[in-house]
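Example: Protein PhnA.
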Amino acid sequence: MSDLPNCPSCDSSYTYEDGSTLVCPECGHEWIVGEVVEQDDGLVVKDANGALLTDGDTVTVIKDLKVKGSSLVVKVGTKVKNIRLVEGDHNIDCKIDGIGAMQLKSEFVKKA
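Written out as structure tokens, the predicted fold is:
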């Protein structure tokens, strides 16, 4: 059994050493042993593959999405730049070229 500390970002117990740093395979967080880590109790949003998303990221749509109240469709592979994370069911606020401002669910995108 390992005596390595849990990940300070996602509290995973599957951390491992990589040189002088510790790495979490679940969220990708890296930190130095003995380093004081500030806890950010902010919004945690993960894409369809489990990668953490942050404001300003670029994501790719992984499923055709019908735009409610319109005949428009956001096609698979559409890149969405400069996203903003918000609270709620549709937790990504963005602008899509040719469609305009809209909100997406993080389960239908992957980090680009």
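The radius of gyration is 17 Å.
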